[in-house]
Amino acid sequence: xxxxxxxxxxxxxxxxxxxxxxxxxxxxxxxxxxxxxxxxxxxxxxxxxxxxxxxxxxxxxxxxxxxxxxxxxxxxxxxxxxxxxxxxxxxxxxxxxxxxxxxxxxxxxxxxxxxxxxxxxxxxxxxxxxxxxxxxxxxxxxxxxxxxxxxxxxxxxxxxxxxxxxxxxxxxxxxxxxxxxxxxxxxxxxxxxxxxxxxxxxxxxxxxxxxxxxxxxxxxxxxxxxxxxxxxxxxxxxxxxxxxxxxxxxxxxxxxxxxxxxxxxxxxxxxxxxxxxxxxxxxxxxxxxxxxxxxxxxxxxxxxxxxxxxxxxxxxxxxxxxxxxxxxxxxxxxxxxxxxxxxxxxxxxxxxxxxxxxxxxxxxxxxxxxxxxxxxxxxxxxxxxxxxxxxxxxxxx
Length: 397
Known about the structure:
This protein is an alpha/beta fold. It folds into two domains: about 260 residues, NADP-dependent oxidoreductase domain (TIM Barrel, Alpha-Beta Barrel); about 80 residues, no CATH class. The strands form two sheets. It has an eight-stranded parallel barrel, surrounded by six helices. A two-stranded antiparallel sheet has the order 1-2. Helix 3 packs across helix 4 and helix 10 packs across helix 11. It is globular and about 55 Å long.
């Protein structure tokens, strides 16, 4: 992989980007003075009227040690940056970047989130802390993080808080993110009329579900801006050689498997932004190339993704926690624990053990002792929930 940041001619860029399987060259703006660089497509973010790049930078990694990613993102038009108070040193890392590059703040559509806020006073406190860490006086989009039921958001005091925060200039737009019960959260949010944006799990494994399609249609029609996350659909555990071979048709079409998984998300025009963690330059180049490519996935490539999703369906948690967790009477936070395991296995930069440690001690201790047979029967994907939860209790402890 060539990491030299030398200026490119348009002809050389087109020749290079045609080889998407090898990744894209970086596009330093200084090298394109005579001829503008190809730009990432942009889409309107719901009724806000703001246009955003289809590729967003997920900042769940060590920003302090990898601030070069922020510079490259800004230079290459990836100006939707997503962080959260709980992403370790992500907010302080972005704040340090803005201190050194003050002019960059106006280019960036900055998103941060509050998780676990007890009430609106706590929301205010958490927002102020995020602004201080980010070294800015406002964020463009503020999410309540990780909600799995609309009742956690649809409260008069939260609506009033969002309106007041907008009026004060500390946030521009408001919404929430969800990993669980996504269809219900989306369809309910579409009816509220005051949610500006939502961030939700969306990838090749779940995108063909009729319930999800209908919920996305409802949000799109209501003017709710939609950000896709978990776009790679990372599974629990390792794949068999036969399962991995199902993706071989993707690489023959000029894309890596990761690029194809991202492209199929970006190919949906209802999705304003596909937000992806990009912790190093290699991943950055791969995603940049996918976003710049005007070539959609072929029918054969889409079919390969569908075959792979079907063959590995019982190793991917789709987040319908209302089913499995109610089956064990709420005795275990199944969805959260499985998400931490997914981070542990596929997100090397994320401290999944620290997240697991934040669960109540009694909840962690009980995980290996619970009978999950009812939860397994309730799971539409037939996940071996009991084995996975006992493995998580051991590996994340």
